[in-house]
Design goal:
PilN, Nucleotidyltransferase, domain 5, 3 domains, 43% helix, 363 residues, membrane, 13 strands, Gyrase A, domain 2, alpha+beta
């Protein structure tokens, strides 16, 4: 009898141990990803664009500060090797290249800080060449001036087409991002901004609140597991199916939008660079005029409007200036805008001429 009781007790101990291991495994699987990273550690990784490839680098804090360490490239064949490189990731960021975003410094009234994003929504189309529907944006506060009651803001704008293509490409490799940002002053040090679409940002969790719920639920389930386990199992399955349905719905919406974005993505990627090259650089215009105009000629007024350059001044021989400008590869369509007049005071010829400055984009 005593031997049978001992065997029954040992059997109960074995079943209890099996239940405990199963229960811990289930709880770990239910934890949010960021909680598991906090509990089990992890690294910060950045995905950077290098030409037509996406590279993965790990952010290491060394004696000299933040140092990026390149660890590999994302495999376009889709074999999933990059997931091995990111298996210990605590945070994953996508770093946009300099040509992939526009930075604009704004000075706003300090009262705008309480509703800053709404204010920037109205300012965006006035301060940038984009419409709100074409871009993702975020901002950083650079300074607060108490004397003038103003706020200095750096506005960052990225074309939707370019960002969405990168997100779609990473999604195909099952890479989940925490942020889309840009490099800071030190390579590998990202800025505290996030250009990621709002619907794709991960929602935060209150760790203390979740832990309290977990402990309370553990006590309750230990006492009533025989009664509530079937119901709990069904609710977990329902939640999993609902989450899966929501993800599938998002994928269907993205697939419909992708068809329209593919046609415009290439144009939008080079839009910022083309806009910069369309305007005549002031220093280049002044430098070219300095080398072309003779010593007996000086200017008293210079106007530059996009590529149109207008020059007012005096010269000992103003009629030769047109041929001098036409001899340069930097100017075209040179002509006088008014008649040449003789100045009785300095005995010089007063002139007003114009020309088109030829930028690299229009050559």
């Amino acid at each position: 009898m005593a031997e049978q009781s001992a065997m029954s007790f040992a059997r109960m101990q074995d079943l209890a141990a099996q239940f405990w291991h199963w229960w811990i495994a289930e709880l770990t699987g239910m934890m949010p990803e960021f909680v598991k990273r906090i509990l089990f550690g992890g690294q910060v990784y950045q995905i950077v664009v290098e030409g037509d490839e996406l590279a993965i680098r790990r952010v290491v804090k060394g004696a000299k500060g933040v140092e990026p360490v390149m660890v590999g490239l994302i495999d376009p064949s889709g074999l999933g090797r990059e997931r091995l490189l990111l298996q210990d990731a605590r945070r994953v960021e996508l770093i946009l290249p300099p040509e992939g975003y526009l930075k604009k410094r704004l000075i706003l009234p300090r009262v705008a800080e309480s509703n800053l994003r709404e204010v920037l929504t109205f300012q965006l189309e006035q301060e940038t060449p984009f419409r709100l529907s074409q871009v993702y944006f975020d901002s950083l506060c650079v300074a607060r001036n108490r004397g003038s009651q103003t706020l200095t803001i750096d506005l960052y704008v990225a074309p939707r087409g370019r960002v969405d293509l990168l997100l779609e490409q990473l999604s195909k490799h099952a890479i989940r991002l925490d942020a889309v940002t840009v490099d800071g002053e030190i390579a590998g040090e990202s800025l505290e901004l996030n250009l990621m679409p709002g619907e794709q940002r991960r929602r935060g969790y209150s760790f203390a609140r979740r832990l309290n719920y977990l402990l309370a639920g553990l006590v309750l389930l230990l006492g009533l597991s025989n009664l509530l386990f079937p119901l709990w199992e069904k609710s977990v399955e329902l939640e999993r199916l609902q989450l899966k349905a929501a993800q599938l719905k998002q994928q269907v919406v993205k697939a419909r939008e992708l068809r329209e974005r593919v046609d415009t993505a290439k144009n939008e990627a080079g839009f910022i660079l083309e806009k910069r090259m369309e305007h005549a650089p002031v220093l280049e215009v002044i430098n070219e005029l300095t080398h072309l105009l003779p010593d007996n000629t000086w200017l008293d007024q210079l106007e530059i409007d996009a590529g149109d350059v207008q020059v007012h001044g005096f010269s000992a021989s103003a009629s030769t200036l047109i041929s001098l400008l036409e001899s340069s590869n930097s100017f075209s369509d040179a002509r006088f805008r008014s008649s040449i007049t003789k100045n009785a005071i300095n005995d010089m010829e007063r002139f007003h001429l114009s020309a088109q400055f030829v930028t690299e984009a229009t050559r």
